[in-house]
Write the structure tokens for this entry.
Amino acid sequence: MTTEINHGNQPIPPFQSMPYPDDEIDLREVFATLWKRKKFIGLGVLLFVVAAGVIAFLKPDVYRVKALVSPGIVARKPGGNVTFTNSLESVKGQIDAGAYSMQLSETLIEQFPALRYASKALHSSIPKHSSTLLISYDTSNQNFGKAVLSNLIGQLEKEDSNIIKPFVEGLQAGIDSDKKALSEHEKTLALLAFHLKEQYKAKKNVQQQIDAAIESTNAYQSRGVKSLASEEMTAESLHKALLYNNMVIQNRQVVYSVLKKELSEINVQIASLEKKQQATSVLTGELQMSVEESARTIKHIIPFQELIPVMTEEGRVGPNRRLIVMMSFVCSLFFMIFATLIIEYIKTCEK
């Protein structure tokens, strides 16, 4: 075997024959010690694995009961956003914070006195790109798990109903009020239409009287001038005839003025009635639109929904017995190796 030369030109002994310092560990001794104690290590590992296996197989199977729910919808605009009665984040937060734990416990104790409700077994999540809430409960008793979710859903539905009910009642009260106002406005419109019809009749009658007065006055003036021109009259009689003719014409002009004034008043009344009719028609249209909008909103209201009823997932979710046995084997192996080394070290120190 070749040897290396140090700076003092002295040969270096082979690596295998070099002595180990006291503070270094000889791995060969360690493995030799472990191999010597293999039965002790194997027995310890076996006892740990058997104990862990017994515990794992004695633990009851855990099943996951789940349901998918959606809060109520109070507004759904075509092409617009949907307004929910409650924020899903709020509902999820209330469940996660255990807001319903006390109520659930009181209710479930009456139904299942032998079982205990564990709030940590209740989970909630919001699926991606969804407006729903997924809630689940892990339990060894499937009926108990279904009862937990059924009671929880009942409480969520009750809370949601407390929001929807006053909202619908308010809308319905508004519809009833608007319908009552519509009925009154329709009566007003009918009355205005009747008065307008009467005023138009009166206007037509007065206009006919005015036309007749103008025509008769024109005819009288023409007839009077012709009669005065055709007859031989004295100056005095002509003067009297002219005075009489002027007096008749003036009287007819007075009548004409009265009729024109009456016609003007009728036109003012007609304009006022038409203005009232137009304003009432606009108000009636607005009320009708309000009634239709409220009715449409009520129609689109969707109460709290249980989209996927309470159901149990296929297969159990725990315990993972294979993982328990594997972890117990690994942990016990390390523990027994460590324990063996400690025991050997103590023996060495005693010697």
